Structure formats: C-alpha cells, structure tokens
Input
Amino acid sequence: MKVGVVGASGYSGEVLVKLLLSHPHVTLAAVTSRQHAGKAVSKLMPALRGTLADKLHFCDSAAPALAARADIDLWFLALPHGAAAEFARDLVAAGRKVIDLSADFRIADLATYENYYGHHHAPALLPVARFVLPELTDPKWKTEIRLAAAPGCYPTSALVPLVPLLRAGVVAREHIVVNSFSGVSGAGKKTEEHYLFVARAESAKAYGLVKHRHLAEIEEQLALVAGAPVVVQFNPHLAPMRRGIVTTITVPAAPGATIESLYATWHAAYAGRPFVTVLHAGETPDSAHVTGTNRVDLAAVHDPRTGNFVLTSALDNLVKGASGQAVQIMNLWSGFPETSGLG
Amino acid sequence: MKVGVVGASGYSGEVLVKLLLSHPHVTLAAVTSRQHAGKAVSKLMPALRGTLADKLHFCDSAAPALAARADIDLWFLALPHGAAAEFARDLVAAGRKVIDLSADFRIADLATYENYYGHHHAPALLPVARFVLPELTDPKWKTEIRLAAAPGCYPTSALVPLVPLLRAGVVAREHIVVNSFSGVSGAGKKTEEHYLFVARAESAKAYGLVKHRHLAEIEEQLALVAGAPVVVQFNPHLAPMRRGIVTTITVPAAPGATIESLYATWHAAYAGRPFVTVLHAGETPDSAHVTGTNRVDLAAVHDPRTGNFVLTSALDNLVKGASGQAVQIMNLWSGFPETSGLG
Amino acid sequence: MKVGVVGASGYSGEVLVKLLLSHPHVTLAAVTSRQHAGKAVSKLMPALRGTLADKLHFCDSAAPALAARADIDLWFLALPHGAAAEFARDLVAAGRKVIDLSADFRIADLATYENYYGHHHAPALLPVARFVLPELTDPKWKTEIRLAAAPGCYPTSALVPLVPLLRAGVVAREHIVVNSFSGVSGAGKKTEEHYLFVARAESAKAYGLVKHRHLAEIEEQLALVAGAPVVVQFNPHLAPMRRGIVTTITVPAAPGATIESLYATWHAAYAGRPFVTVLHAGETPDSAHVTGTNRVDLAAVHDPRTGNFVLTSALDNLVKGASGQAVQIMNLWSGFPETSGLG
Amino acid sequence: MKVGVVGASGYSGEVLVKLLLSHPHVTLAAVTSRQHAGKAVSKLMPALRGTLADKLHFCDSAAPALAARADIDLWFLALPHGAAAEFARDLVAAGRKVIDLSADFRIADLATYENYYGHHHAPALLPVARFVLPELTDPKWKTEIRLAAAPGCYPTSALVPLVPLLRAGVVAREHIVVNSFSGVSGAGKKTEEHYLFVARAESAKAYGLVKHRHLAEIEEQLALVAGAPVVVQFNPHLAPMRRGIVTTITVPAAPGATIESLYATWHAAYAGRPFVTVLHAGETPDSAHVTGTNRVDLAAVHDPRTGNFVLTSALDNLVKGASGQAVQIMNLWSGFPETSGLG
Output
C-alpha cells in the first residue's frame, strides 16, 4: 500500500515520515512541501540520513495534483487546522482515505469547532469524519468513515485515563481538574523568542489557561461518554524538555468506588491493548519512559481525605499524541497488525 | 551581627552561605559540617571561589560547642528534620535566635507533625516557635518567638496566592486543587539513581501524591486563616530543571467574587512588599523569571465555565522557597531593611 | 539464533536489550543480573514496558551455568572490564561466540592494557579476540576469532574519521588533537554527586585529561594503520545531555592533500557502508541528529592558515558507540544483513 | 556617576542592565531601545521585576540625542558590530567615555577588522580606542583612551590562560589548538529554527570552524605578546546549556617548561586579581561553577607523552565574557573598587 504525507515540515511530520519509512506494510510514496519541493527529505530531516529519506524528495503540494495520484491509497495531513480541511476536501472527493493530524475534524459539533477555531473550511465532511482514539472509539469507525481525525496530544493523555472510568461510573463528572505538563515540541516549530533554547531551558510555566483549544475535544468526548455535558478545568504547562506529556487528573470518586474498582475498570478496558500500560502499584508514569514509544502509561491513587482519585498518565506527544497514533489508526483501518511499524 | 549556619552541605545550605557572605549587615562567622570540618567552604562550594568562602572553614557541629559561642547571635539550621530539633534545643536554651529551614517547627499542632514526620525531638520548643512567612504571618512574631520556622518551598508557592484570597472571602475553601512543578534541587542532594542527570533530563513525573509532607503546613496555615479545616489536593511533580517551582491552583470563586476583586485583594495584601509581584493582565509566572531572586510572581484568571479561579505562582525553591526567605526573616527580626542582601 | 546478555543493568545494557528484543533474526533468551535475578526485565527498564521485556526475567549470572546453556549461541558481555574477561573465559571455552562491550579485549598489546587498566584476567584469550570496528577492521575477523571486542564510544568517534585518512596518507600522524564532548550516559550509571541532575545540567567540563583509558585503543589502532607509533592529545568533556558524542579532530594535512582528496578518501572508504554518512559541504555533524541511530556523521574543513584539517564526527555513544555496534558485529558475524535490527 | 546603555534587548544587554541597577556607585540613567521606547525595562526583562527596572523606561536611541545628554558620563554600547561604531562616533565626539561590547574596536589593525567583519564605520576612533582585558592589558589604558572595547567571550576564555604563559616563554607559539564549548546564549538572541529549544536541547555540535570572527582578536592579542604572528586553530562548539564557556587549549610546552613553572607563572600573573582563580591540583574548571560570576577558573596538566600542556578555563559568557567585564572596565576606569557591583 502506498501512502503520502502532506506538510511534513513540523515536528510531528518528521516523526510520521520516520515511522512510515520503516513501516513493514506501506511505502511512503509522497511527502509534500510547498517550500522545500525538490529537496531530499533527509536534507530537512537530518536524523533520517542513511535511510530511504535520502532518496525521497519533497514534492509540491497542490491539492488537485495530489488527489490525482491514483497510486496513493491513503494520505496523512500534517498541516495546521484550516489548511488541513482544504486538502481533505479534494482527497476525500477523489476517494482516498485521509488521516488528519490537525484539529479540523476532531470535533463533531460545528458550533464548538467554530467557538474554538473559527471558520471551518469543510463542514460538509464532518458526517464522514470521526475522532478516532483507537482504544476508546467504537471500532465500527473502520467501515463507517472516510476521514479519521487523530486526537490531540493533551486529549489523548486525558481521555485514556478518564473515559473508561466515566463510562463505568467509577468517577464523578464534576470537579474534574486536568493539569498537563508538555515538552516544548508540543507547541510546534515556532521561531519565536519564547521558544528559543535560552528562554525555555530551566523554565516551567502555565499557558493557555481557561480556554486551550484542546479543551474542546476533551469535553466533547467526555460528554459523549457521560451522556451529559462535562466541564473540565484544563491547565496546560510547558516543561523544559523536548518531548513528552504527563497529565495529572483530580476527579472525585463516585460513591462506592474504590481504588480496586478503578484498577479493575482500567484492566478490563485495556486488556489486550498493546499501547496502554496500567502500571503496578507504587509506580508512577514518567514521560521519559514513554518517549519514542506509542504507549500511554497509567496509574492512580485514592485520597481518602479529599474523596478524590488522582490519575496520572504519560505519553510522547509526537508519537501516541500525534504521529504514532495516526499510524495506529492506519494499521487498524487497513487490516495490518495494530503494532506494525510502532516498535 | 555574627551569624552561623549549621549543616550547609545541601543545595539550600549553599545558597544560604552565598547570601550571608554578601550580606551587608551580618558576618557569617561559622559554617558547620561534621563531614567536612577543617576544609575551606569554597572547596565544597566551588561556585563561591574567589569570595570570603576561600578563607572560611567548616567547623565541627557538636551542638553544645555551638551553643557556647557567645559571639554568634543567630543560627540558621539547614538540617534534615529531626536533626534540626536537636540543635534548636541547645541553641535556644543558650539564648540564641534560631531560624530553622527544616520542617520541625513549621507545624504548630504536634499530632499533625507526628502524623507526617513521626516523633518530634523538641516539642517543648513549639510554644516559642512559629511558622513565619513574612508577607502573611502576623508581624508580632518578631517579639514573641525565639525560633522562626522558614516555610517550605511548595507551601510558600501555594500560600502566597491563596491566603489573602481565603482571608478576604474571594475563594471557597473546598475543592482546592494544587499542582506544583519543581526543579530537581527541590528533592535535596540525594545520590540515588532516580536523581541522576540521565534519569531526570527530558523527564517529568508526578510523585508524592496524596500525602506529600508539605501538605501538613499548607493545610494548617489555610485552616488558621479560614477558621475551619481546609483539605487540599496537592499534586507535586518533578520537572527537568535545576531550580524553580510553578504552582497552579484551581479554586472555586466565592459567590460574587470577580477577577477584579481577586486582583484588588492581592494588590492590597502585597502593596509595599518587595518580594511579591502581582503580574499585569496577560502575563503568566515563569520559573525562569524568578530564579536567583527572592520573588514570588502571581497571576490569576477566572473561568466562567467552571466557576473557578486558576491561580499561578512562580518562585525559586532555593531562595524564596528556602534560604532567601530565611534571610528575609533574619532581616525583619534584626531590624535590617527587608531586602538587605536579597537583591 | 538465541543470544544472551550478561550484565544488563547499565545504560548500554538497556539499549542492547531493546535492540535484541526487536531484532528480526535472533531471540534474546537470557538476560543476567546477580542483583535482580527473578524480576521482569521491564521492571528495571520501564521504557520497555509493553514489549517482550514484560515476560523476560533476569536470570542469575554464574559463569559456569551460563556456559552450560547449549541453546545460546552467542553472548554479549555488558560488564565492567575485568569482570568481562572472567565470563569470556568460560563462555569461549564452552564454544560460544562472545561479543564483549568492555575494554578487556580491545587492546591487543597486553602491556598497554596493563598500563591503562591493570591486571588482565584472561590474557590467554587475546589471540582469539579482536577489536572489531566493522567499517575499519579487516573482514577476515569473521572467521578468525572467537571473541569480538566492540570498540569504545570515543574511539569509534575518532577512528572512523581518522583511519582512512591516515591509511591513504591524507593526514600527518603527528600533532593530532582530539577533543570530544560526550553526553552524561557515557560515564555510566554512577550514583555519585557529580552525576546528579543538579550538578550536570547547565554544566560543561573537561575530565580525564592526558590519560583517559580510551586513549589506549585509539592509539593502538592508529599505530596499526600508520605502521608506527601515533601519539594523540585526547581531551574528553562532559556535556549536559543524556546521549551523543561530538568529536573534533585537528590534524595537519599531509603535503599535497586537499579537502577534495580528503572527501574522496572518505567516500571511497565508506561507499556502501550503511552506518557512516559523509555530510555534504556546509553541513556539520550534530549529536542530536544521530541519537537513537547506529550512524556516524562526518565532515571536514581545511584551514589554509594553519595547514590543518579539522574533522568532526557525531554518534550516539550508546548505539554506534556501544550496543548498536555490538549488534552490527553480530549481524556480520552471523551472516545477517548488516542493518538488521538497527533501524 | 550616571551611565547609559544603548541597545539592551539582547542577552548581554539584560545582564548589563541588571548589574548596573544594583551597582553601588553608578545610576543607570538611560536604557535605549528603538523598538521598545516608552516601555518599562522590566516589561522586557521580567527577571528584573521588583527592582528599579519597574520604574526605568526605555528611551529612544537617536545617537545625537544621546550625545546631548550632559548628565551621562559613560555609555555602554550593547549593539551589533557596525551599529556600535556609529554610536561611538557621536558619543566620543561629545566627550563621553564609551565602553563598547561589540567587536568594532577590539581589533587595532584595520585590515584584520575588515577581513573578518567588512567595512568599519568609525576607523578614525581606533587610535583612541583599545581592547581592554583588565587582567592583561597595560593599565595605562585608563588614561590613554576614550573608548574601551570589552573583549569577546571566547577570546577572554583563551587569552586569560594563554597570555601570561606566552609572555613568560612557558609555551610555544605554534601548534596552538583551542576548542571551546559555549552555552547557547553565546550565539545571541536569534529567532531561528537552529536556536529553538527543540533543536538545541540534547545537542552538541561544532560551528564556525576555521574562521570564527573571534579568531581575529585572539590572534592579534597573542601576536602582540609574542612579538610575532601567532596562528591558532580555533574550534567553537554549541553546548545544550544557557550560559557558560569551557575552553580547552592544547599547546606545546616550551623547552624546559614544567607544570610547576606554568602554575608559578599563572600565580604571579594573577596574584591579587579578584576575578581569576587558579584552581588547586586535581580540580578542573566547570562552567556551572562560574555561571553568574565574573570569574575565570583555570587549570592545566602536562602530558609527557605529547609534550603538550592542556589548559582549561571556564567563564560565564554573559558576565566575564561580556557585561561583567564591561562593568569591571568601568570600575577601573572610574576609580571604583574593581569588584564593585560584581558580587
């Protein structure tokens, strides 16, 4: 199977190219870049020197031309929101499968999308698109959709621990507080003073309080499970590391719920899932343990004083939080083993 | 005025020695170390080469001998809890002022102390000791006590934003969730695999969930202000940086409270206080901005969706969170300008 | 083919286990650890959670018992020097192939070994052992030896650029100055204050000047090529990063040598070698570009003012500088494709 | 005495403002910035919140207007080369003392300047300007010049160890190889992808090989001492840290020179100099030990095998390598104690 990547100049684009180049069941047949068309991919991604990226060259990224490429079955969109929707329109119309890493199709409710992101460039596609978090989304998506929206990094880190517990009634749906701590690559490749090494090394800070865009997909997904609106306090932070997210969730235990019932719920939800690891008692997720993997590590404690559970998760924002998860979606969609090319 | 430091081999001990050596109103006349007695202080603290630390030598640290030194008016204890109490006993008995950087005298309630720390080695001193957070503690402490307990790093980062708001009724005293992210020096100088560079670089993780020892002093201080027990969810994390703490507090707004009333309360509480900076709208505390200073930076936002305020603070765990605050206490206690040696 | 690893508790041991677990042509059938016998490998190596390391348990490491395991064809020794020689004795005697990551068999000359490392525990094995740097060592080693010594990290970074140039007479063999900058994992997993995060973050320093142990193998290998003694000034440094080495070599150009003849020599020497990348003009090796790969990146400039070439290389000290190179040796020795399991 | 700073938006500008604001003998009366005129200085330099920088506002930076300010006796220029010369012209013409942190007046020989930097904008000032490295430059400069050029960071790290040894004939003047390893702030505040946190963290690399601009002042100063041209191989590198330089110099010992004569020469040269520390035997300079200080730490070893000395130095590129040294120059020029305001 041949696949293509539109817009690979960002951090997650590079990880995606790397994963696809070494994937045993697909050929990466096109990587587009308006700016770098003609250059060898490894020229822009020196970590990929000595691989097939030496021979692969960026091609131009006019959407109609890409849509016309009959050899490519599936396209990944590693573009900013807005731009992604525009490409999706042409590629879906041409009958290609599309896996979008942007936010454009993560949110089913158009009004919510517009509230957080502004104008939507392809609302007509929403009915054939779906937010796909493979461990949580109803597996019927594989036959029902034409476009899969890979979840955001923060949402993955919050939903994997929360959704099964909310579904099973182990936790309340009020007073949920999510604090996340992300490596700097989570902010994208922005050449601004704020993201220079000298500014970010030895520095931690909160940002995007109250209305970070990822809140939209966290709350929509939780509401779908809860059958009622869920309002979350989401506090993201930058940490002086390149990759990785740790998320710490404070959530009231439901009446009667115990730490044992919580763990039993997680074990049931994630039995046989290769990319979710429920840690043993006494272990705590550490972002460094998941860097470079497609894993989410989970742990929880119960606080009898407050009546809360404190859930903790760790993942690599560029792998399970972006490109690895996109490849996992492709694997499931295409009938490959779920772990193909993912370690 | 001559001062001494007992136990200066840790990270905060080194910062304390540095601050005292350049303090305009005191002479650092003794620095003790059982292990390094006889060596030049700068031998163990190479950052202090070229200063008076070349000429100052560690002396032995037998408590009776220290208590007998009539030339020294005030002692800082930079010791582990337990050990601190033992020295405090002799030094207070000899009529010296003592500023303790350990937890031994931060908690007024003996049962709470024992619950978190075990046996107390000098409970008889509790009546003449007090937790002194200079911006918050009733200034009468200066004449009422013989031993000042310098607050912990996390408690300072949580109490400076919370106490005035709780006192003024701007925030609720329930559902308070405190997430903190600390530089690795906050864990002390422990030669364990977990604290090696290779383990901690590029790594973030939660630790000490549910019952971190600093919770004891956070809750006791909040209860004193609230006039009723306050139960806090406290989630500390390690961040891959040497110094600095950022704390993010989710707390329900009290009925009728607004972001304006919150800021007005802070401005009133901290007017004229040189070490608390209430940031302008749109600014967020950044640990890198306070490293090396005795400052706490504060900001807040209101979330109309959740009804919460989200408060953020930043400080240097070794300065305002330890040694700088201890020097500030000395300044106030001794009648020096509050900022002497701290700016 | 089944393989085993003796002594996997260090940084390179962990990388080796990871590489072998995902290797397509071998089964990792034994991982020994005196200290952790019985525990799951992923318990000690949390980065390997969710892999076969969950099911694999450390076994005890008595050398005779290991030698008796008829199912295992090849053993890797990831032990300190001295200890490695003792295991090698029993395993070679039992007819097993051995790839040693320690220094014990890197140096052919016993007196040199003893000068740098002290007593040798198995000198009788030296005739059947060889220093194997796959790109440089005569390929006859594959049939002539019973024990392969994988080169050290610094030596690999210095020899890959230097050896072809010295062999071709492009550079002089005098006035060679090698400066290297290594990530902290290069020092091994030592729980000493010097290697704590707080000590090493934001810190660079030279160490081991004049007689670093890796000098022995650098000079012996250069002498073999030059046919005469070569004396090198080797200045290693620690850099505040986890992994990676950059090496910068100042060496006088031989009479008549040009930057073009230098590059032509490199291209000829490394044509078809998958793990050496000669960079394009204007590019400089960057340790971050090779982290996690088995690659060495190379570049050079000529300085007409001094008459020197300045050669630069970058590699990952734990991969091409240790475990990746050991796997590469196994691949070649066993007739697998050279790149199997190496990306 | 009132002083001003022209162009304070870079990293060394910020350190300079910080040092001057807390200097006991001067008042910082003007800080210019074309871009930020009117804003509070602490707005752009949040590390200076709570200091006089809250009250001080950037003023516009038209050179004639600055030259007209009769209240300001001395100006620091923290500008790019080229721009500095233009301001220097007006300020010197108006009779002000000028301390220039750029390269414009560090090089006495105009042709050399033009070779490395291109057109010089104020060559007429060269006769009244001088490269001033306080520990090395003939103290007559204090009365002979009107403009002091503060040395570059790399040159300071190389000249402090080398100059006394070359002057005393302890080392040769040929085959000198200087390798330096600098924190990222040394590259200035450039918003380029190469300097983003994600690019530079966990990354070391050589850059600027063969003809780094600082080579010009290193060689000119060495030639002045040697009385003959000195050609140096200078290999600068970036290290993943914010501040600090370590420099390692390989230089042949002069006939008869010993490590004892080397240390004796250093001790004689730097006796009574507060900012040069000759370390004890067995100690090696570490950049982290000098960060935030105006110190240079020095050590050396002799290698009997190569006949070389290996000299090592460490300094903070923004303090002794820029702003601290500029303040030290002001102190000496103005008759203040050399250490005023420098810790």
Q: What stands out?
A: Chain B is about 30% helix and 20% strand. Chain B has two domains: 2-150, 154-317.
